Amino acid sequence: MLSLQPVRGTQDLLPDVVRRHRRVIETARASAELYGFAEMATPIFEFTDVFTRPIGEHTDIVAKEMYTFTDRSGDELTLRPENTAGVVRAVISNGLTQGVPLKFFYSGPMFRHERPQKGRFRQFHQIGVELIGVAQPQADIEVIALGSRILDALGIGQRVVLELNTLGDPESRAAYREALVDYFSTRTSELSEDSRQRLQRNPLRIFDSKEETDRRVARFAPDFADYLNAESLRFFDRVRSGLDRLDISYRLNPRLVRGLDYYTHTAFEFVTTDLGAQGTVMGGGRYDGLVEMMGGPTLPGVGWAAGIERLAMLTDAPPPPPRPVALVPIGEIGEPVALRLAEDLRNRGFTIDVGYSGNLARRLRWANKIGALAAILLGEDELARGAVALRNLGTGEQAEVSLAELPSQLRILVDGQILF
Ligand code: ATP
Ligand code: MG
Questions:
Q1: Average pLDDT value over all residues in the chain
Q2: What are phi and psi of 351, to 5 degrees?
Q3: Ligand 1 lined by 270 (C-beta under 6 Å)
Q4: Residues in Cβ contact with 200 at an 8 Å cutoff, skipping those fewer than 6 apart
Q5: Residue whose CB lies within 8 A of the most ligand 1 atoms, among 156, 280, 302, 315, for a mutation test
Q6: Pairing of strands 161-166, 251-252
Q7: Mean pLDDT value across residues 40-65
Q8: Beta-strand (E) ranges in 141-297?
């Protein structure tokens, strides 16, 4: 028997949901354009190396969540779990690194083999931006301001809080790493198996653990603030005062680390308490080492990604699509005329839905069901006179209208004016 269930963690997006997603995407794209970001798209799958090296072998994503397979040519491929690595790969392979700064917006599906729950899926969708080639904190500020603007435009600015942290430059990070190894090494027996692994490879990531035991131990770990060098502190101060000047409020969260290994300096998340455990709607930061790590020149970068499903769940229902006009042919003469007339009216910008089958009563029921504003009835007698019957489905009133006058009469009705 064919299994009719979608694969665990995947879902069909029916029209109402797609409209919500589309509004998120269109709002984000329009806002991104205001900041000079251009949309781009990379393939949904890449060579596995594109993700493993930059994201880090010991992150959850690479260790547990990637959809990796060998294809029929023997290539090792992975469905993208995120899009920063893909964008950077594309920037390098298309030789765009000469033309910095580069500003890109993207949206599309991502894939992670996680435990599905509310707001967490195996195929999900992200919008995101990347700003490559600007080392100054102005880039961090602009990218956060854009994220904030999108959340405001979606009407959820009041429901999220911006959390901010710095991961310092590589020197600060190395010093902090040492301090963390010292601290956690004294308490290994209390750490989860995963975090014992992280302790060796990337102890910072223990802060990202969702295990209660790890969180308890992490609470008393040394603070990054005590290990930041002057340069890192200065950078963070400039980001903070820049946000202040734009009236973008934030909460410092010294335990905020990003899931991926390649972040430096600024790390931030927009979080909400309205989605249960899946509270992060947008996350990002600076990734100054990434382009070089992937084989390109030394170029800084900063960006964020946001989960479309989580954003869509927080937004009010979008306005309904335009109500159609129903075209209802009656009898043999009406049928062939109907599709031609439908095209003519669509050419004039009307939304026309054709009733394909059933008797008149049935087609009128259908017209009401689809929420049509009006029905155009193509009866033989009317057509013989070069006319149709136009019925206002709101009032039930009906009148004969010549084909020549139909577009103007329809316009009046669609624009919400009283007909007849
Ligand atoms: P989380 O801590 O929730 O697992 P993350 O740190 O793994 O998030 P990122 O890699 O930063 O997430 O991705 C950016 C955004 O994409 C998240 O803030 C979230 O809104 C969304 N997202 C990530 N994973 C999923 C998923 N499995 N299903 C739905 N949305 C997701
Ligand atoms: Mg995750």
A1: 93
A2: -90, 115
A3: no
A4: none
A5: 280
A6: parallel
A7: 91
A8: 161-166, 251-252, 264-271, 280-286
Write the DSSP assignment of 271-291 as a string of letters: E-STTTT--EEEEEEE-TTHH
From the CA of 343, how far away is ligand 1's center (Å)?
44
Spacing, Cα 280 to ligand 1 middle (Å): 7
Q: Out of 10, 80, 121, 124, give the residue to mutate to test ligand 1, the one with the largest number of ligand atoms within 8 Å of its CB.
A: 124
Q: What's the first-to-final CA gap in the chain, in angstroms?
A: 58
Plot region of 180 (φ>0 → left; ψ -120 to 50 → alpha; else → beta)? alpha
Strands (E), 321-371: 325-329, 352-354
Give, in degrees to the nearest 5, the angle at Cα 166 between 160 and 168. 165
Q: Which amino acid is at 235?
A: F
Which SS3 state, helix, strand or coil, does residue 225 take? helix
| Cβ(121) – ligand 1 distance below 6 Å | yes
Which one is predicted more confidently, 87 or 208? 87
Interacting residues of 154 by C-beta distance below 8 A, sequence separation 6+ = 23, 24, 27, 311, 314, 315
Which of 41, 128, 90 has the alpha carbon at shortest distance from 302? 128
Quick check: 371 pLDDT over 60?
yes
Q: How far is the CA of 259 from the centre of ligand 2 (A)?
A: 7
Q: What is the mean pLDDT of residues 164-193?
A: 93
Nearest ligand for residue 271 CA: 1
Q: What dihedral angle (degrees, nearest 10) is formed by the CA atoms of 44, 139, 206, 255?
A: -140
* Model confidence at 58: pLDDT above 80: no
